[in-house]
Every structure is written in C-alpha cells, then in structure tokens.
Design brief:
Elements (H helix, E strand, L loop, with lengths): L11 E5 L4 H12 L3 E5 L3 H15 L6 E4 L7 H15 L2 E6 L3 E2 L9 H29 L3 E6 L14 H19 L4 E8 L20 H12 L5 E4 L1 H10 L4 H12 L20 E2 L2
Parallel strand pairs: 1-2, 1-4, 2-3, 4-6, 6-7, 7-8
Antiparallel strand pairs: 5-9
Helix pairs in contact: 1-2, 1-6, 3-4, 4-5
Amino acid sequence: MSDYIARPDHGLAWVTGASSGIGRALALRLVRDGYAVVATARDHDKLVALQHEAQGQTRGTASGRIIVLDGDVTDPRDMERILSAIEYDHGQLCLVVLNAGVYLPVHGEDLQRDDFEKTFAVNLHGVVNCLLPAIRHMKANGKGGQVALVSSVTGYAGLPTSAAYGATKAALINMAESLKFDLDKIGIRIQIINPGFVETPATAQNAFAMPALISPAEAADRIADGLTSKAFEITFPKRFTYALKLLRLLPYPAYFWLINRATGWKKRPLQTHGPGVDKSDKGQSED
C-alpha cells in the first residue's frame, strides 16, 4: 500500500477546473498551504484573476503561487502540452487534483444526445486525458506522487436529472478503486473525492432542495484536510453523504420511494421541450 502524502516541498500541485467553484477555492487553499499550484481551465482571464488574488493573499510571505497553464481537458494533446510545460519549465508534480467537470441536467422525457456526449467528454474522458500523462510523469520521477479524482455523491446511486453526470461520477469511483491496486505498488497514492452539495453555478440549477449545502471555501478546506490524511475516500459533509451511502443499500422499491418523497420529483411537471429546441445555454461547467 502507498502511504505517500504530498507536501509543498515535494513539488508542484496541479488543479484542473481551477477557474471557478471548488477548483478555484482549492487552488487558493493549496497556495496558502505553501504549494506552487499549476491552475488549468479553459478561461485564461479567470485564471489570471485567480493568480492575482493568490498574490494578494501571500504577498510578503514565503507561501505558494499560481502558475497559469490554461487548456481544454477534453483535448488529450492539450493536456500532454501542459505536462510538457510543467516538466521543462516548472518542475516536478507531487499532487494532482482532477476536478474539471460539467453538469448538464438530463430529463428522461426529453433526452438529448449532446447532454451525454458533452458530460462524458469533460467528466470522464477529461480525467483520463490528464491522468495518463500525470501518472507517466510521476513514474518517470520515481519519487511517488498523489492523485485525487473529484467525483460526487451522485456516483453512489441514481438521482433525478443526473443520468449523465451521475454516470460519469460513478465511473470515476470505480476507476479510482480499480487503479488503487496497481498504483499502490509503484508508490502513487490515488484518492476519490465525493462531495455532497456545494454552492456553485452548477448546483444552482438543481430543481430540488439540497440538504447540507456548503460553500466552495468550506469544500476546499475539507478536501485539503483529506489530502493530508491516509483515507482513500474524501467525502463531506458526512451527516449527508453517509446517509446516501446507507440509502443505496436499500431494496430498489424503498430507494425509489424515498428519493421521490425527499425531492418531490414524482409531482413535478414533465419537460415540454421538443426536437430542435436550443438548449445550448443549459448546464454550467466547474472549470
């Protein structure tokens, strides 16, 4: 088993989806902890604003900094480019948090192929596009490393509107569990991060009450603490996420009844969008 725990003196941290939400808050927290953080997202201007904010928080101290390397996680060549830039211009990676994601609500009565393809491209393929070069880099250095995949409690079991999003998050949980067996043997520690509801533009779209909602800053603190622990799973707030763990153990009739009751979903009207309706503004990316 790999007991490796990254520290700022070991090397750089890399956070994807760093321009907003959890990723942005986590990048700032890691900077305060002393890391030089490579921040990646598609929006260059937002990353530069993050860099300036980090400088304001650490001015006059020996703390960390933000290195802006923007790119699109759905493009494997772009992620290879970023890893090359890290290796040749900045140094060694010791910590990777793959956070970039998008949430597009899916309604069974109004299925759109594009919702699934965009979600899979960012949330699943985007992780693979970053994971492969990151693991190769850590193997080549021979000094170990730490990788965390940001999943979600929606990966535990099916929830309303999460047919695409939840499917990708369930895949990430399984991916991390499966890779752990081999990565442990080469000194690379992998973790899975399963937050509950966090107040972001993505969750603002949810058409149901979100219990135990927390801020991105609080989520970042929970994640940062979990990264320094030996836990495989980082999940919070536990009073909510552990309840969902128990729910998934119920027989299906009881599970569906309870979720319908908790969300009021059975009483909600059907979606009325027909073919050809423009839904291009639906969904918010976490990067």
